[in-house]
Amino acid sequence: MKEKVRTAVVGYGFAARTFHCPVITAVPELELAMIVQRSGHSCLQAYPSVRAVQDVREAYEDPDIDLIVITTPSTAHYSFVKDALLAGKHVVVEKPFTPTTEEADELIALAQDKGLVLSVFHNRRWDGDYLTLQEVVRRGLVGRITEAEFRWDRFSPNADPSRWRDAGAEGSGTFYDLGVHLIDQALTLFGLPDSVQAEVRTQRERTLAPDYFDVSLGYPDGLKVSVKSTLLARDPAPRYRLYGTEGSFVKYGEDPQENLLKAGRLPGSPGWGEEPQEMWGSLVASRDGLQFTGRLKTIPGCYDAYYRNVAEAIHGVSELGVKPEQARMAIRVIELGMQSHAEQRRVPFTP
Fold it and tell me: What is the 3-state secondary structure (H, E, C) of 90-135?
């Protein structure tokens, strides 16, 4: 591996503080060199050795910066990513990629034209429960899969329209914020669907953006994949349900890495990403007359693997794990979901 990839993080809100900055510092191939914080220099309390600036142009113009990480609200992703690419920088952008596929296509073409790495932070591919779900599918533990359900339920009854997620601008709301993670996981696991049917609603008072979605992805072999979320679930449903011709897999709870990061832990520390046994998923399966019922140990999650792959892709030694074309397809599903809801019908999937 060549010298470290010098990295600038644009924005110092929740995503930067909780995910990007600490995970970047845990990856030996990267160096957190600069943080662009619009007001104040509070980032120096946690990262006293970085260069703290208030103008993003300083990141664009610094010849020593190789990679720029965009953590601004999704409503502004397009302009920040475009400017960073035009400045000749590799880019990681928070999910969702962009509010529209038209914007995503323009950015993909620009990155290709300049020979730069462009990736979207779909870190939830490295959630331990999802890694475990992938193995259940890959090994055929439940036979031919007929139905899958991915959910992200929370209880957050008080909307705040002054926050961008509740404000109603294009690219806001839980369909873009949480749904894009689940859609990316579904597309990664099962591929592109044949059809999309969706219900997208606002349930809480005062919110100006959708805070509920129920999406059905149809596949040619009869597989149905449901992607759902509500912010009014005091008792959340399972995160994953997987049903097949020879069994089922059901998993409750959320990956522990976010809470570990909030507590100041870093990837690579002892026990990182491990779940207690009581949180392991339940597998019920039969094969050749044998019946199994029990808990399946959760594979430890590893968000640092995302950034390690980005560094290796920049150095040209690994294929990029989260390609912008893949992230663009998740946005396309959202667009078609909004069309389906507006027209009250199932719509064919068109790239």
Answer: EEEEECCCCCCHHHHHHHHHHHHHHCCCEEEECHHHHCHHHHHHHH
Q: Quick one: three-class SS letters along the chain?
A: CCCCEEEEEECCCHHHHHHHHHHHHCCCCEEEEEEECCCCCCHHHHCCCCEEECCCHHHHHCCCCCEEEECCCHHHHHHHHHHHHHCCCEEEEECCCCCCHHHHHHHHHHHHHHCCCEEEECHHHHCHHHHHHHHHHHCCCCCCEEEEEEECCCECCCCCCCCHHHCCCCCCCHHHHCHHHHHHHHHHHHCCCCEEEEEEECCCCCCCCCCEEEEEEECCCCCEEEEEEECECCCCCCCEEEEECCEEEEECCCCCHHHHHHCCCCCCCCCCCCCCHHHCEEEEEEECCEEEEEEECCCCCCCHHHHHHHHHHHCCCCCCCCCHHHHHHHHHHHHHHHHHHHHCCCEECCC
Please calculate the CA angle 166-12-90 and round it to the nearest 5 degrees.
Answer: 105
What average pLDDT does the segment 33-48 reach? 96
This prediction has a pTM of 0.95
Query: What's the pLDDT band for 2 if we cut at 50, 70, 90?
Result: low
In angstroms, what CA-CA distances link 315 with 9, 67, 310?
19, 12, 9
**Considering only CA atoms, which of 286, 181, 179, 272 is closest in space to residue 229?**
179
